[in-house]
Design goal:
Layout (H helix, E strand, L loop, with lengths): L5 E7 L4 E8 L6 E8 L2 H14 L2 E7 L6 H8 L3 E5 L15 H14 L10 H33 L12 H8 L6 H31 L6 H7 L7 H11 L8 H7 L4 E3 L8 E4 L5 H11 L10 H8 L3 H23 L4 H23 L10
Parallel strand pairs: 1-4, 4-5
Antiparallel strand pairs: 1-2, 2-3, 6-7
Helix pairs in contact: 4-6, 4-8, 7-8, 7-13, 8-10, 9-13, 10-13, 12-13
């Protein structure tokens, strides 16, 4: 083994132990399993130092997963290349039914050497913190929905039906407070459910306030302000989109962004046969869900509501022009597709795909390709 050779290191991460494999450079380079090490910083530093003394260049990789990006940042701080790879895009042989830490580590090392792995975008620590805050609010909203569903299910079993249309507003809450149940045990259950719903709502409100307070100090604050000028996107939606997508400059075209979000049709074509199916649903589901929800607002004619005026005015002029163009085009497009007999859910998905293009354009209008601010 020569000191100036190159080595590719695959790491299969877990909670307590990391499995390590190495593939030496060259088509016929040796591939071997090195064993497991503890997940501590000290153990990782020792491994990196040992490998760096034997090889001229060492490159590391591991799968994106619950262990996060701490290992990536540690290896990068030691002066070596590291990739966090997309698990769904790792090549796998048909019929391979055996999965172990050793085999996964060896496979990562071999695929890294062959250039067959796709790296994911790694956020900085501040961006990751904003993403965690956004996801915490989303989890709180899901919990709130669950608590409300439990109340509705109990009342349905008891034959109690709210006569109004809109639930969980002031009128609905007054109706709930006026309910008198015959059985003491059911009154206790209902009161406990009311208390849980109130706590869940307070949690959502606290997290939403935390997001509002954190945005001005975020590096993507200007992008968030710009996106609020777009119909169907408020502050929380804008933060969620940018927290999940990160730096949009890594997408060379709107089509790349659409494909990343899984909003493009799947396809299974061969020869002269062309067969397209539903959207791929690849990529980030949270950002895709927000975009589809926003797309429903375009079923109405173009207009700027009184609440939206201040948000539009806060955006730069180029952004306002893009937002209005998006509104006129997508509203017209929504109605045209409905008239053609398309299902509303399919139409909303199609509008969400086009909305990606306008978001990409707004990012380009606010930020130059190299990260320099174009407008302020």
């Amino acid at each position: 083994m020569e000191h100036n050779s190159e080595a590719f290191i695959g790491i299969d991460t877990s909670k307590l132990k990391n499995a390590i494999a190495i593939a030496e450079g060259g088509r016929d380079g040796e591939v071997r399993y090195l064993g497991e090490i503890e997940t501590t910083d000290a153990a990782t530093r020792k491994l990196v130092k040992k490998l760096a003394t034997k090889y001229r260049k060492v490159t590391f990789c591991y799968e994106a997963g619950p262990t996060g990006y701490g290992l990536y940042r540690l290896i990068k701080s030691l002066g070596h290349e590291c990739s966090v790879v997309a698990p769904s895009l790792i090549p796998k042989k048909p019929g391979d039914r055996v999965k172990t830490n050793r085999r996964d580590a060896v496979g990562l090392a071999k695929n890294l050497r062959a250039g067959e792995l796709t790296a994911v975008w790694v956020p900085d620590m501040r961006h990751e913190a904003m993403r965690d805050l956004s996801r915490a609010r989303e989890a709180a909203v899901d919990d709130l929905k669950s608590k409300r569903q439990q109340i509705s299910s109990l009342l349905l079993r008891l034959g109690l039906h709210y006569p109004g249309e809109k639930t969980w507003g002031k009128s609905h809450r007054n109706w709930l407070a006026s309910l008198k149940l015959d059985q003491r045990e059911q009154r206790i259950v209902l009161e406990e459910l009311f208390g849980a719903e109130r706590q869940a709502q307070e949690r959502v409100d606290r997290l939403a306030s935390a997001i509002i307070d954190a945005v001005p100090e975020w590096s993507l604050a200007k992008i968030v302000t710009a996106l609020k000028a777009v119909r169907g996107i408020d502050l929380v939606a804008a933060v969620t989109i940018m927290a999940e997508l990160g730096d949009l400059s890594r997408f060379a075209s709107p089509r790349e962004l659409m494909a990343f979000l899984g909003l493009v049709p799947s396809e299974s074509s061969t020869g002269d046969s062309v067969k397209r199916g539903g959207i791929t649903k690849a990529g980030n589901r949270r950002a895709r869900r927000i975009l589809v929800e926003s797309a429903w607002s375009y079923r109405y004619p173009p207009r700027i509501s009184r609440d939206k005026l201040a948000k539009v005015a806060a955006a730069p002029e180029p952004v306002r022009a893009i937002a209005w163009k998006a509104q006129t085009r997508l509203s017209s497009r929504f109605r045209a597709l409905i008239k053609r007999g398309k299902r509303p859910t399919i139409v909303a998905t199609a509008i969400a795909r086009e909305l990606c293009g306008f978001i990409w354009a707004i990012h380009r209008a606010v930020t130059a390709p190299g990260g320099r601010q174009l407008v302020s």
